[in-house]
Every structure is written in C-alpha cells, then in structure tokens.
Amino acid sequence: MAARSFLYGGDSGGGGGGGSGFNSVLVTNKRPPFSSSMPLDSHFVSGSTHSFAGARSMVSFDQDGGNGSGRNFFQTFDQEENGDDEYDDYFQHPEKKRRLKADQVQFLEKSFETENKLEPDRKIQLAKELGLQPRQIAIWFQNRRARWKTKRLEKDYDVLQESYNELKANYENLLQEKEKLKSEVHDLSDKLLLQEMEKGTSDSSSTKSPCEPLQQEQAADFLNDEDVGVRSDATESSSPQYVDLIERGDSSYLFEQDQSDESLDEEDKLEKMFVTTVSGYMLPKIESGDYPELDAVNSSYLEFPSHGEDEDEDQPFGFWSY
DNA sequence: TTGTGTTTTATTGCCTCC
DNA sequence: GGAGGCAATAAAACACAA
C-alpha cells in the first residue's frame, strides 16, 4: 500500500497514513450522537459544542496500530440508535462503506457553499462537529468538488450548444434571405432588359439595321479582351446595373482605354455586337422577339457568382455581377 | 427478488507548491 | 520531501424497473 493507503488513519490530510488494517482499528469518537432535531445552522456557529456522532458512519482506524484489542473496535458505535444487528454487521464486516447521514451531508453541503476549499483548521472543526474523521471530510470535499466541476462543465456545454444553435439559425436565415434577394435582382434585371429591348426595337427599327443575335463567343471574347478593360467600379454605381454596365457612347465610363485611332476597330466591334437604344443605352444585339436567345444570353452572361466569388473584383464579367 | 444503472465513499498514483 | 489537490477508478450503497 502507498503512503496514503488507509482507512481513516487519523488526520493525515492525505500524506500520513502508515499501517492500516483491521488490526489497528481504534475508534476515537466519543462525542454525543448528533440529533437531527438540532438546527443545522447552530453547527456553523464558531465554537459550537454541538457535534455529530459520526462514528456510526464509518469505520475508523488509528494510525499507531492501536493497542486496542477486540472490543475496542467501534467503541463509540451508537448501539442504542443502530441496534445490535447493525453493530454485529459492523463487527463482522468492518471494512464496509457507510454513507453519511442526510444531516451530515446537509451540513457539509452548507459548508461547501460558503467555501469549496478546505483549510486544515476548518477540516478539523468540521470533523469535530460531524463526528467524522478529518480524512472523511477531506474526501467528501474532494468528491464534492469533482461533482461540482462536472456540473459546471455540463452547464458550460449547454450554454455553448445554445449559442451554436442560435448562430446556426441566424446563418440559415441569412442564406434564405440571400437567395430571395438574388432571385429578386434576377427578376428585376430581366424586366429591365425586356423594357429596354422593347424601346430599342420600336424606336430604332426604321433607322437601324435589324438586330442580330448576340454571338456568345464574340461577346465573351470581347468582354475578356484585356485591351477593353471593364471598369471595375461599374458595379458600385447606384444606377441600375445593366444601365451602368452598358452606358451608351460614353465608353470612357465603361472602358479604360482611350478613344485613340486604334480604338476605331473596337468601335466597329461594339457596333456589331450592341445596339444603341433611344434612351442611349447599349444592349447586346438580340433578334426581336427571340426570347430563348435572350435566355441564353442571360444564362451565359448574367450568371450570379457562386459562393466564394463574391469578393472577386477582377472577374472578367464583374460588371454583370450583383 | 433480481438485474442493472447511478450515486457515493474511498483509494491510488501523479502532480504542484512550499 | 511532505502536504494536499486532482483524475481515474474501485466498490459499496442505493434506486428502480421487470
């Protein structure tokens, strides 16, 4: 057995100990039995003379091996209260664990509430009050601290779980809201596009050549052309995105490149691919009434960025983004 | 009554502090 | 190196359903 291997070898506070075993049993408690009718608070009064008769609660061993022989065992066992049967039981099974009485536990609980650490003086005092071994008091506090810690961990876990659930719910709400807004924006841009097309076909039909379907490849090439850089701040404009993106004529807004001689080719390119509306906006050339084509354009160039691309300011179709 | 799960009491070994 | 705390664990006591 280790240094602390004993069953209540006096108050060693965990360090003492030494020989133990039933041969060294010696009961030390000679205090009057604790009466459950006593107000518990009285036991907290300093210098209180009340005490528990704890000897019945636990087997006690003396450190020195005791010279007590035979009937010295459980000398103060409360025979009056427990009767001969229990006495015999103790005598025949002296190592049996005994639970503390409810009153004793209540007393210890109160003490624990005031301070969950146990100073040596307090331990002795409590032991006297309860008629238990100081070692028992120490063990009780130790186990009580462990239970308290477990409870606290459970509470902490619950709090964290609740917080997590709340955050998760908020996140899901935001996702839903985002999807809703996305579809709203899509609908509105479709409407705007149709509006502009109607204007364009009715007002310019007499003076302009028939609209040609926008070739996706052409458009993609054009829009990807580094020489025709799209202004990245177009998306930050407060005007409708489509309008911002394709402002007519004033290519200085849409494009960074100067209107130099070389840019004449680009102007031709623009003319081929876009139609200028009466309201001055440039729209991709689409055959009037050919809405499936429009859908194709929409799906090709009006796609929403997927997750993670939202912050990509350099994407080639940035001005199509919302 | 009995099997089983939970709680309580106690031990052991390791660690830190003084 | 001793005192005391803590985690892990054993084991008795207890609760309770079948």
Automatic annotation (TrEMBL):
Protein name: Homeobox-leucine zipper protein
GO molecular function: DNA-binding transcription factor activity, RNA polymerase II-specific; transcription cis-regulatory region binding
Keywords: DNA-binding, Homeobox, Nucleus, Transcription, Transcription regulation
Family statement drawn from the similarity comment of this UniProt entry: Belongs to the HD-ZIP homeobox family. Class I subfamily.
Organism: Lactuca saligna (Willowleaf lettuce)
Key word Cell membrane present: no
Limits of the Homeobox domain: 91-151
Transmembrane segments annotated in the record for this chain: none
GO biological process: positive regulation of DNA-templated transcription
